Amino acid sequence: MRCSRWLNGPVLAPAIAIVAALGLFAPCATTDASAQGMAPDSLDDGPHVYWRDASTALVFYRCQGDLRSSGWLSVDRPLAVKGLCADTATTYVLSPAAPAVEPDAFDDGKRIFAVSDVHGEYQALVDILRGAGVTGEDLSWAWGEGHLVILGDVFDRGAHVTECLWLIHRLEREARSAGGRVHYVLGNHETMVLQGDLRYVHDRYLDGIVASSGVDYEDLFGPAMELGRWLRTKHVAVRLNGVLFVHGGMGPEVLERRLGLSSMNADARRAIDLRSYDLVFSDMPGFLLASTGPIWYRRYHRGTPSDPQLTQEEMDAVLGHFGASAVVVGHTEIGQIQALYGGKAYGIDVAVAELGGLQGLLWEKGTFYRVRGDGTREVIGGGR
Questions:
Q1: What is the model's pLDDT at position 82?
Q2: Rounded to an integer, what distance in angstroms lies between the CA atom of residue 320 and that of residue 326?
Q3: pTM for the whole structure
Q4: How is the chain split into domains, by residue range?
Q5: Which of 87, 169, 330, 340 could, after both became Cys, cross-link 345 (CB 3.0–4.6 A)?
Q6: What is the pLDDT of residue 25?
Q7: pLDDT in tens, 302-320
Q8: Is the preceding peptide bond at 47 cis, omega within 30 degrees of 0?
Q9: CA geometry: angle at 143 spanning 140 and 149, to 5°?
Q10: CATH among 3.40.1390.10, 2.30.110.10, 3.40.309.10, 3.60.21.10 for 105-379
């Protein structure tokens, strides 16, 4: 049966309003929270939430081939939005107020789990989070006071980016309520999409929600959109229990510029919405989003005659600058999670197709572990 109209949904709690127009769709195939993804060949997508102002929102989906919209909603309490048209059992709670920028350094996490370069592979993300015990089978937060790091590049290539983003969005809220944290660190593919570089966007989006709605893909993540304003609060690097997490890496130029963690993060957030001429002719934002900046850097893994691989001494200097004992990076695929520089660095962008899924890096009581999708773990040695 086709979803023909919006129906009222139940109120979750007194402080949370499910606006009348935002309940369940009319009878559709429903799933529980463990099956948020759509069929591989589906062009359906959503929800996308447009905040005209702090009290007015509009929600739209592509559902079973049609564009569905709530119309303008008057919002004066947290807004609970149902998931994809085949995912009406999952609820996402949105605050009318713009999300706040969270701290970029914590020293109280009992354990840390990090994954990187998901690239829209929703099932791989689900498998590794369940296997590691970060979520339960129903994909609710189960990590207690632990910290989860999503180390960039959720966007592009794969066909289930939206599902990945909403899962992370929901887990972030649940983790905070449990005393834990989710840190979504921006990668180069996040900034590419936010700035309109769509070279690697899956056709599912361009042929589906973009064609149906008339909203450009990058504008689905614009400053007035829920996912867009959320992404614009994220950092390019965080330090947790003395371990630095950054998508690409930190090189000597960061030290030469005397960039501190928080100032660098603030400058990078501001750079996201600059125009090309700002980036070309302004030194700092241009550096932060360029090849030698933190989201594109690759010299931990390889070098060229003009741009040689980082030396051990340079690595030690980077760690000393940020008060870190080790740095964790994604961005450059390395097969499986490995220690680099004698355990001073860890690369976690793995070959998903070859491995049959993602791997995660676990830090617990000062020891690093490689974790596979089935939950098995092994201590990682010092590496080169």
A1: 84
A2: 10
A3: 0.90
A4: 20-94, 105-379
A5: 340
A6: 30
A7: 888 878 999 999 999 999 9
A8: yes
A9: 95
A10: 3.60.21.10
